[in-house]
Structures are given as C-alpha cells and as structure tokens.
Give the backbone structure.
Amino acid sequence: MTTPAGASADGTSLARTPAGSAGSSFRGDPAFRAGPPSAAAGEPVIEVTALRKTYRAGRRRKVTTVQAVRGVDFTVRRGEIFGFLGPNGAGKTTTLRMLATLIRPDGGQATIAGADLLRAPGLVRERIGFVAQTSGTYDRATALQELILQARMYGMAKGQAGERAAAVTSAFQLSDYANRQVVTYSGGQRRRLDIALGVIHSPQIIFLDEPTAGLDPPSRARLWEEVRRLRGEGMTIFLTTHYLDEADALCDRVSIIDAGLIVAEGTPADLKREISGEVVLVDLTPPGAAGVADPAVTAAASRVLGELDFVHGCEVSDGTLRLHVDVGAAAIPLIMHALIDCGIEPGAIETRRPSLDDVFLAKTGRSLEE
Ligand SMILES: Nc1ncnc2c1ncn2[C@@H]1O[C@H](COP(=O)(O)OP(=O)(O)O)[C@@H](O)[C@H]1O
Ligand SMILES: [Mg+2]
C-alpha cells in the first residue's frame, strides 16, 4: 500500500471531500511516530469500541433526541470488503460519518489505519477516502478537472496531480468522457467518478455510503467490479448497504445493524449457516385475488402451523408464511395436511436455503425486505 500521495508530514493536507475539511498537527501521536502500519494481510485496520451518537433536535422544551448509534463494536481487517447492512434509519451513515471524522462521537473509541479517531483525526483523514451517498461533484466541471482539483487539494504538485488524475480516469474507465461536463453523465458513470475522487490520494481505506443506491442492475454490477478491483489493489473497503444481495455477493464480512445496534456479524455464509435448516414459504393468496390474502386466513394458518412441533419459527409477510424447519421436503406434506385439515387451501409452497434476510428476521423479528 502506498502512503497517501498528498499527505503532508504534519497532517495538514486539505481535501474538498468533507473528510478533509479540517486538519491539524499530530506530530505527538504515537501512530505518526510509528509510521504507516505494516501491510501484512488481514491485520485489523479499523477497530471500533462502544461508539455511539445521539442527535438532538429542536429547542428548549421541544428538544427531541435520537439515539442513532447506541454503542457498536467491530473490527475490519486489511484488504477486505466489509459491509454494514441495515434498513433505513439503522445508523449506518452516522457510523460512517463518525469514522470519517465528519461528526464527533458522543462516546467510544476507534483506531483507523493506525491512527486514533479522536486524538489524531487529521491523520485518519489522510489515510482514508470517503464517498458520501449523494454526489458532491459540480455539474459544469469535467471529470478530469474535478480529479485534478481533488489531487491538488491533497497537496500534489501540478504535474503529479495531472498524472494521478489520468491514471485514475483510466483505471475507472472514465477516459471516454473525462473531458465532458459531469452533468452529462449517467448515474453509474457519476458514481464511478465519485469513487475515483475518493481514492485519488491512494488511501488505505475507502468508506462508501450506499454506493449503488438507485442504480440499475448493470450499473450496480459494474460498480461491484470496481470495488473488487480496489480490494485487489490492497485497499480496504467499508461500505454501507440496505441491499441484501449486495451484502451477500460483494462483502467478505458483514455487520448487520438495526436501530443503532449490531445484531449479527460474520461472513455471509457463516451468518446463513447459523440459521440452521431450511425455510418453507407458503403463499396464502387465493388464485385471482391480485396478491391479496385474507388476514383472517393468514392469522389462522400462522397459528396452526406455528404450533407444529417441527416448525421452529413462523412469520407472516405480504400474505406469505415463512416457516423455519429442519428439512423442507419432509415438512411440506405435513404442512399441506395441517392447512387442509382446517379448511385452508394453500397456493404455492416452496423451500429454500436461509438468506441474509432470514438472519435479519431471526435477530430482529422483522424482515429487511419490507
Ligand atoms: N442530523 C440529524 N439530526 C437528527 N437525527 C438524525 C440526523 N441524522 C440522522 N438522524 C436520525 O438518526 C437515525 C440514524 O440515521 P442514519 O445514520 O442516517 O441511518 P441510515 O444511514 O442507516 O439510514 C435515524 O433515525 C435518523 O432519522
Ligand atoms: Mg444512510
């Protein structure tokens, strides 16, 4: 891993990204004296302990507080794609903004790329890149202008900034439109430029907030490839997502966050294995009912099936029952019998392996997909 190209020795480099909005000197910081951490694969590069944040809004007696992050612990290892998976409002952006030094935590600690988040925020900013969910590029500027400006703000000399901008443009396959105004870009192209801007100073870690939100499937796939390429170059990627398939397909490890607390952590495969057995889905929408199930029928079916001793869990969503069983094939005929015995005729019944949503459901009692 290279040291940040534009990082000045005293930590005063400035970037136009919010992450670089301030800087100060940290010569006394032990992490600074020790130099950049060694590049041994798999060592912890982000270590977070009891991090929390409460927002206060309103004035005087009308003050309301939101406990956005209520004490989270996790470790991210060098060279991995680490995902923060959770529904809207879970506290993903708040955590990311704390780690990127954009907002101050109310409590807890974090070490990021060898620098202490609270004592050496300038050093943290040099060693990370941050890409917010909404693009910060100017519509009228070209990609190349934006990249050069960003490189200059990280302290690179003119020639070096031009070279680095050209290299990043080519790596992200933006060369064909690098001299076009950003306003003409597609959503996917713009996201690629955002990430290119985030890595212009060759950070050790890149933080991506919902990098593929709102993109069409081909653009999402394209962006996943960019993220994997960065990992291939030795970068550590910390991303947030509310997409189950993204966490499953892209991330080496995930933390699932809900209402400001981490409810599960591990590789997607391990998390799914924790949910032993199989899931049986029973569709209770009558034929021709345009996807609407009778709530009374759903409730009755849920009660009857939930009482069967081989059913370990039973949830209802959108007229479909989701049952946790050991062996789906053995359970299906028994489920059919139980329903028909009480006068309910089920629609399609299918069995599948547990998904990350089943993990979320098991931990929170709710589905992430709703
Ligand atoms: N600046 C703010 N002031 C007050 N409440 C906020 C602010 N930013 C976020 N929140 C609240 O904090 C909670 C977590 O938000 P956020 O971290 O943005 O979640 P996520 O990124 O997972 O959707 C939500 O309830 C949100 O409404
Ligand atoms: Mg968010």
Observations:
- The longest helix spans residues 217-232.
- Residues 92-93, 133, 209-210 surround magnesium ion (ligand 2) (CB under 6 Å).
- Residues 1-40 have pLDDT under 50 and may be disordered.
